Amino acid sequence: MLSQEIPFADAAIYRLSESLALVQSVDFFTPVVxxxxxxxxxxxANSLSDLYAVGARPLTAMNIVCFxxxxxxxxxxxxxxxxxAERVHAAGAVVAGGHSIEDDEPKYGLSVTGTVDPxxxxxxxxxxxxxxLLLTKPLGTGLLTTAxxxxxxxxxxxxxxxxxxxxxxxxxxxxxxxxxxxxxTDITGFGLIGHAAEMAHASQVALRLFTSRLPVYPxxxxxxxxxxxxxxxxxxQKFYLSRCHQPRPVDPLLIDLLxxxxxxxxxxLALAPQKLDGYLEQLRQRxxxxxxxxEVLHQTTGSLELER
Length: 308
Fold this sequence. Notes:
Layout: E1 12-17, E2 20-29, H1 36-53, E3 57-67, H2 74-90, E4 94-102, E5 107-116, E6 132-135, H3 141-149, H4 159-166, H5 170-179, E7 183-186, H6 191-203, E8 205-210, H7 220-225, H8 231-240, E9 244-245, H9 252-259, E10 267-271, H10 273-285, E11 291-299, E12 303-307
Parallel strand pairs: 3-4, 8-12, 9-12
Antiparallel strand pairs: 1-2, 2-5, 3-5, 6-10, 6-11, 7-10, 8-11
Helix pairs in contact: 1-2, 5-10, 6-8, 8-9
């Protein structure tokens, strides 16, 4: 069991041989958008993200479906499954089956399986002093989907965030494996603050985040300003903010952004300074953006420093 040797990975890892390990993960959730096809795409992309965070290649996916058959049309379920299948195929994997149950509220996601060379896989525990921190998707999906549910915004208003959630972390992961990084994690329910704190703890270092550099989806900070902050953000702030040092007080709206629980967020990468430009250039060639948001400071028990 590889997890006995490397406990800080974003997915379950089982070594099959010296050069091959099985990678598995599972995730599902209730709708975050109204369009069933895009909901399926987002849920599938989110489920695949743990595999990409360790550098694995997805192979198969199994549908996990909860659906109120007496309340919603079967055509809606078909659209959800088609959306999920489209993302699985875009990942180069196949849908191999799944399981469904009747439930009062729709829920959808995937159990995913892939492979990786355990000698090359990436974990959260390798960040080194001097490494630079990159983020491969903007923040704010929790704020925006909360506003969507509250009918403050429409799907047209948050199209950039929807496109971002649908996008796979495939390119970011493949370039990560080609260039070589020290550590990685995907940003999901614990928000940037939580996943960064876990990387700092796993690597026994301190991470400095420059809050003025954080990429943000349109309208997300506006929603924070009017108080449309998801419950998960409050939980993240309560649990993780005590691990943070603020030499100068950070704008509370940026704290909300840091704590915002993400759906199908990007990868947080720690890599050596000399590899930074090469990684960004290879991503640009694939039409993918990334943002330089921080650095690894020094050895510690694991903490965050929030700078403006």
